[in-house]
C-alpha cells in the first residue's frame, strides 16, 4: 500500500511513523508512507496557503490551489482514495479501516485553521472522515489514528495474524478479558478455566465473556452483531 499525507506540519508525523509497528511495516515494505508539505506548492511569493473567508468571519481558510497542485503532482492520484479529514465527515470505524486496508493507494488531506475551501471537498476529496465528535486543531492526529489502524490490518504487519481477528469490533463485539503471568497477583487469580488447557471450554468462556462485556458496555454493538443460537444461549447464562 502507498500512503501520501498532505500536511503543513510533516514534523508531527516523525515519531509516529518511525516507531513500533508502523516502522516495521515500512521496513518490510508492506506500506510506503510519505508526507508532502503542500506549502511547497504555493505559487505565492510568501508561500501562503490560507486566506480570509469570503463573507467575513473568524479564522483563515485553506486555499484550493496548493492542495489541488500537491495532489495532482502525486503519480496515479486519480486511482487513489483521497481522504479529507474533517469533523463533518463519516465517523471512522473498524469497518472503515478494513475497507481502506484493501486499497492500494490512500491520500490524506490534513486541514488546519478553519478548514478547507469547499471546492476541495466537492471536487478533489473522494471520502470525508472524522475520528469523533470533537474538534482538533488539525487533521494530523486524525490521519495518524486512521493510518495506524489501517496499517495493522495489512497482511504480514502483525506477527500474530490471529490477533486482528479477535480484536474488539472485528467480530462486531468487544474482545474478552486477557490475562498473562503471574497466575496470582496480590491475591487476584487468573480464572481457572484459562489454566485448564481445555481449548473448547476456553473458547466458550471467551465467547461468553465477549458477549457479556459487549452487552454491558456497548449494547448498541450487540444490536448490530450477527448472533447464532449458541451465542444467544450463552448470553442468557
Ligand atoms: N471549522 C471546521 C468545522 O467546524 O468543521 C473545523 C476546522 S478544525 C479547527 C481544523 C482541521 O482539523 C479540519 O480541517 C480537519 O482537517 C481537522 N479536524 C478537526 N477535528 C477533526 C475530527 N474530529 N476528525 C478529523 N479531522 C478533524
UniProtKB/TrEMBL annotation:
InterPro entries: Alpha/beta_knot_MTases (IPR029028), tRNA_m1G_MeTrfase_C_sf (IPR023148), tRNA_m1G_MeTrfase_TrmD (IPR002649), tRNA_m1G_MTases_N (IPR029026), tRNA_MeTrfase_TRMD/TRM10 (IPR016009). Keywords: Cytoplasm, Methyltransferase, S-adenosyl-L-methionine, Transferase, tRNA processing. The gene is trmD. It comes from the Bacteria. The keyword Acetylation does not apply. GO terms for molecular function: tRNA (guanine(37)-N1)-methyltransferase activity. It comes from Tepidibacillus fermentans. This is tRNA (guanine-N(1)-)-methyltransferase. NCBIfam families: PRK00026.1 (NF000648), trmD (TIGR00088).
Amino acid at each position: 500500500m502507498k500512503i501520501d499525507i498532505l500536511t503543513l506540519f510533516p514534523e508531527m508525523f516523525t515519531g509516529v511513523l518511525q516507531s513500533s509497528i508502523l516502522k516495521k511495516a515500512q521496513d518490510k515494505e508492506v506500506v510506503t508512507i510519505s508526507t508532502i508539505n503542500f506549502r511547497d506548492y504555493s505559487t505565492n511569493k510568501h508561500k501562503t496557503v490560507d486566506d480570509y473567508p469570503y463573507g467575513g468571519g473568524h479564522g483563515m481558510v485553506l486555499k484550493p490551489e496548493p492542495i489541488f497542485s500537491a495532489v495532482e503532482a502525486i503519480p496515479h492520484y486519480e486511482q487513489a482514495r483521497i481522504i479529507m479529514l474533517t469533523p463533518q465527515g463519516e465517523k471512522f470505524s473498524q469497518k472503515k479501516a478494513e475497507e481502506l486496508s484493501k486499497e492500494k493507494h490512500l491520500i490524506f488531506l490534513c486541514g488546519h485553521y478553519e478548514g478547507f475551501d469547499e471546492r476541495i471537498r466537492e471536487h478533489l476529496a473522494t471520502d470525508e472522515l472524522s475520528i469523533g465528535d470533537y474538534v482538533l486543531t488539525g487533521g494530523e492526529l486524525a490521519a495518524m489514528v486512521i493510518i495506524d489502524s489501517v496499517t495493522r490490518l495489512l497482511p504480514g504487519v502483525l506477527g500474530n495474524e490471529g490477533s486482528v481477528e479477535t480484536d474488539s469490533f472485528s467480530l462486531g463485539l468487544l474482545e474478552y478479558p486477557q490475562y498473562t503471568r503471574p497466575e496470582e497477583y496480590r491475591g487476584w487469580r487468573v480464572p481457572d478455566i484459562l489454566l485448564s488447557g481445555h481449548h473448547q471450554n476456553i473458547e466458550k468462556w471467551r465467547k461468553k465473556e465477549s458477549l457479556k462485556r459487549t452487552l454491558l458496555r456497548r449494547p448498541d454493538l450487540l444490536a448490530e452483531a450477527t448472533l447464532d443460537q449458541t451465542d444467544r444461549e450463552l448470553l442468557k447464562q
